[in-house]
Structure formats: C-alpha cells, structure tokens
Amino acid sequence: MLDSTLSVNFGENLTSVISTAAIYRALPIAYGIQQCSEEISHEACVVDCQLKIFEANCSCTLPNGRSRALDLNTSTSLDRLKTCGFEEISLCSAAFASIKDKVKDECSDNCLSACEHTRYKQLKTVGSSINATEAHFNISIWTFEYQIFSETFVWTFESFIAALGGLLGLWIGLSFLLLLRFVITPLLYLVNSTCSAKTAKHQ
Questions:
Q1: 3 with 124: CB under 8 angstroms?
Q2: Which of 4, 48, 90, 186 is 20 to 30 A from 63 (CA-CA)?
Q3: Are the C-beta atoms of 17 and 122 separated by less than 8 Å?
Q4: Has this prediction a pTM greater than 0.70?
Q5: DSSP state, residue 44
Q6: pLDDT tens per residue, the chain (203 residues)?
Q7: Which residues pair with 37 in a beta bridge?
Q8: How remote is the C-alpha of 123 from its chain's centroid?
Q9: CB of 37 closer than 8 Å to CB of 160
Q10: Measured between alpha carbons, how far apart are the two ends of the chain, in Å?
Q11: What gap in Å lies between CA 191 and CA 198, rounded to an integer?
C-alpha cells in the first residue's frame, strides 16, 4: 500500500509518479462465514462503532455523526456536537476519554476489513528547488492499466455436476442421465400404481 501523505521540505522539488499495481477482491462469505464487508471499510466501521458507544453512554444522538470521525482531544469536535447539549457532551467526553483506547481496540476487533483492496506503486524523486523559500509538487499518473485478482470458489455447481458425470462414465460406465432415469422410473411407477388403485376403488 502507498502512504497517503506526501511531504516535501522548503527548497525541494518533489516529483511523484503514481499508478495502481493491483486490485484484490475477496469473497464476502466463504463456507457460511462472513469474512469481509462490501459496504464499509474497516476504518469507517471503527469510527461508526465508537460513535454508537459514545451515544449510548451520553444517552443522546449526534447529528450526522456517522459520517465523520470523533476526536475528543479537540474543542472543534465539541462545537460540532452542541445539538446534543454542550454540557452533556463535555461531561461525556471527559468520561469517554479514559476508555477511548479500549473502545477503539474492541471496535477494531469486531469490524471486518473491506472485501476490496487496492495496491499502489509510487516512483518518487526529490530535487533541489530554484527558490529556498518554495516547495514544488509534481504529481502524475503513470498508467491506468492494472491487474485484478478475485477470490472464487474452486468448485461451482456446474463444474461439480460436470465432474461427477465424467467420473460416473469413466469408472462405472454410467451417464448422469441414466442415473436420473434409475431414480425417476421407480417414482413414475409408484405414482401410476397409486393412481390406478384409486381409480379401481372408485369404480
């Protein structure tokens, strides 16, 4: 993965060429177990979990709280939450600060990672700038071509039936249609016998 932060010092000229190396897609459910999330990333899930616990402890609702992170160390976060009552938010923030790290760890353990991950490549060069009081950024895209790796089941229902039919024909000389005939024929005979017996009884 590529660090999302690009930094440069004054007097430097940063040239960064970025491209997508590959995209990895996992099955959301495998063997009946949910292994990843298709709707929300792990980071967003952790934030949402923290907000829900904060709301439960404060017994109030944070408007639009689901779409932003809650930083209890800054006053601007408290200013955004005045609709819940400033005094309530202040008291809850002080009480929540002592368990914030524990809550974050619990939420991180309970949240699933995203089913899709993107890996990037970066070619970065740093040169001297013309002016020591300036910093220059040059960011460009290398290519829009990339590979996609998707997790799939080794056996699908169609491939399993095809393999089963091939094995039956190879080892015991039976075709899948003939095997179905052995099952359906007795059933048809049973149905016909039952209908005949009911007809004779009514007569």
A1: no
A2: 4
A3: yes
A4: no
A5: H
A6: 445 566 778 888 888 888 888 999 999 988 888 999 998 889 889 988 888 888 777 777 766 554 343 444 444 444 444 466 677 777 777 777 888 888 889 999 999 999 998 888 888 888 876 777 888 888 888 888 889 999 888 888 888 888 877 776 666 665 656 666 777 788 887 877 777 666 655 55
A7: 114
A8: 28
A9: no
A10: 82
A11: 11
Cβ-proximal residues to 90 (8 Å cutoff; 6+ apart), any chain? 78
Percent helix, strand and coil across the chain, each to the nearest 5: 45, 20, 35
Task: Say how many C-beta atoms besides its own lie within 10 A of residue 41's C-beta.
Answer: 16
Residues 6+ apart with CB under 8 A from 188: none
Q: What is the largest CA-CA distance in the chain?
A: 111
- Which of 118, 65, 62 minimizes the C-alpha distance to 85? 62
The alpha carbon of 125 is separated from its chain's Cα centroid by a whole number of angstroms, namely 34
SS3 at position 18 = strand
Please answer whether residues 27 and 113 qualify as being in contact, where contact means their C-beta atoms are separated by less than 8 angstroms.
no
Reference 17, options 141, 135, 118; nearest CA is 141
- The closest alpha carbon to 41, from 130, 134, 118, 121, belongs to 118
Place of tokens 């976060």: 77
